[in-house]
Amino acid sequence: MNARSILDHWQDSGELDQAGYRRALLALHLAPDTERWRQLAARLLLVGGALCLLAGVLMAFASNWLTWPRLMRVGIAEAGWLALLAWAFFARPDSDGRRWALFAVAAMSGIWLAVIGQTYQTGADTWQLFALWAALALPWALLANFAPLWGLWIVIVSLALQLWLPHAPWRPALSAWSLFDEINLPLIGFWLAALALAERLQSAAAPWTARILPRLLGLALALLLTVQASMVLAGEHQHVFNLSSSTSGAVIVSLWLACVLAALYFYLRRRDLLLLALPLFSVWVAVLAWVVGAAHGDDWLYPVSILAIAGLGLIGWWLHGRNQAWQAAPLPALTEAAQ
Amino acid sequence: MMRWRLPLFIIAAVITLLFLNGIVWRHEQTLAQGHAVLLPLRPVDPRSLMQGDYMALDYQLTQQLTHDLMAAPPAAGQALAIVLGTDSDGVAQFLRMAKPGEQLQAGETLVRLKWEDNGAHLPSNSYFFAEGEATRFAQARYAIFRVASDGTALLAGLADERHNTIPDRLQAPTSAHSNP
Which of B162-176 are b and which e, b meaning 16 or more Cβ less than 10 Å from the residue's Cβ? Predict the structure, then answer.
């Protein structure tokens, strides 16, 4: 319960009169003063203006877009890009405004490219659009060095890799990945490289918000590898899709196991509880998938349930122990950063 | 802006501008100066989608190519080079698959297509137009492509059964032969 709720509760129960309630609000800086009202009004106007602008752009596209000449359509996209470029150029260096302007420039490069593609209908593959967008966005990501922009760039490259896979020259040898089919090794390689780079560039003492990108990458990798490994261990690749070979199954399980062991070793030293939990839950899911795939009949229901609950309890108990140990003996780097 | 950032900012901006405007310039050149080719359409229906009205396009040429090559299909994504001629009516006809370095005869046009999993594809399989124009475009019987010397084909418009271009905005129709 926060301070405001406590005061509200006291006032509702009659323990605090109106004057006292007002004094308490002012003393705790909970009552909005003129400055805060002004800030709120400015923000409301800003949000309202941005929404009006967005609605205007949407209406213009919806009503007139295809009646405009080709060059005007492309020119409007280019003018939007140039306006964002000017914002990025004139924004205060190393400010959030400049970083978001560079984010917008990188995003607008893709929109401009898409408008060209739609206007001229060149028949280029979608993966080529995303690959080109990633190339155009890379300098802006390097300039901004801004986690949301790196996140956008990783998403664009991931889409390019995913869409490129059916065209990959080695595809006939290893088949292509789909959600329940085979595995996109280039995508996993890219995510692993991005995660390794993010961990190398980022201090272990970085605050929680600065570690969102590596954690999202870790989560994505854990999901992708766990689903694939579980499918192989449960035998679903052969039973349902009849597309897998024993070779690719062994590759998937080996890759998953290597990543689990590497993550356990690294994040135990790194002391990141969330990223340490992911390989443990991954093993829990994979073991359950293997047991369910091997077991048949209702007799297995209770043993599997007990295994699932016991596994979860064991993971929770061990993680709790790690957390307590880390808090009792913080890393030297963390101690220095706190000071 | 830090010392190394300003040059990178300028280089990135210039490269993006040159590259994307270069693409637009090349396509405009193809549409303005490319060789006009009239391709018969298979029956189509105007459809409405989130992007506005558009017409789904299917071509007799790609149907014929798909039929001819299906026995030994090329790899997905492989480019196909074909040679087109024109019949007495001025409509493009498939002559043969082009050989590498082949010299074309007078009246022949090289066109590049792509083979996907389900057959041969020209660059455009839809034609977008403004809302409320579906009735006019339902009369389309031919697609007008402009083809560059390297075989790159861009959809320039649609034509009715008398080969008249259907204008994007209402104006006097012109002949596809003279001014597609």
Answer: ebbbbebeeeeeeeb
Who contacts B152 (Cβ-Cβ below 8 Å, separation ≥6)?
A122, B30, B34, B112
Under an 8 A CB cutoff, do B77 and A125 touch?
yes
Question: Could you report the predicted ipTM of this complex, rounded to two decimals?
Answer: 0.80
CA dist A195 and A215 (Å) reads: 9
Give the relative orientation of helices A96-120 and B5-33 as an angle to the nearest 10 degrees: 10
**Total beta-carbon pairs less than 8 A apart between chain A and chain B:** 73
Select from A113, A117, A161 the least CA-distant residue to A137.
A113
| pLDDT lower than 50: segments of chain B | 48-50, 172-173, 175-180
With a CB cutoff of 8 Å and minimum separation 6, the contacts of B50 are none
What does the pLDDT look like over A150-182, one tens digit per residue? Answer: 999 999 999 998 888 777 766 554 544 444 355
Prediction pTM value: 0.77
Q: Give the minimum alpha-carbon distance from B12 to chain A in angstroms, rounded to a whole number.
A: 6
Q: Does A139 touch chain B (CB under 8 A)?
A: yes
CA-CA distance, B23 to B34, in Å (whole number)? 15
**A115 backbone φψ class: left, alpha, beta (φ>0; ψ -120 to 50):** alpha
Segment A241-256, tens digit of pLDDT: 555 555 667 778 888 9
Q: How far apart are CA A233 and CA B125, in angstroms?
A: 43
Is A272 in a helix, a strand, or coil?
A: coil
Mean pLDDT to the nearest integer, A18-37: 85
CA–CA min distance A166, chain B (Å): 8
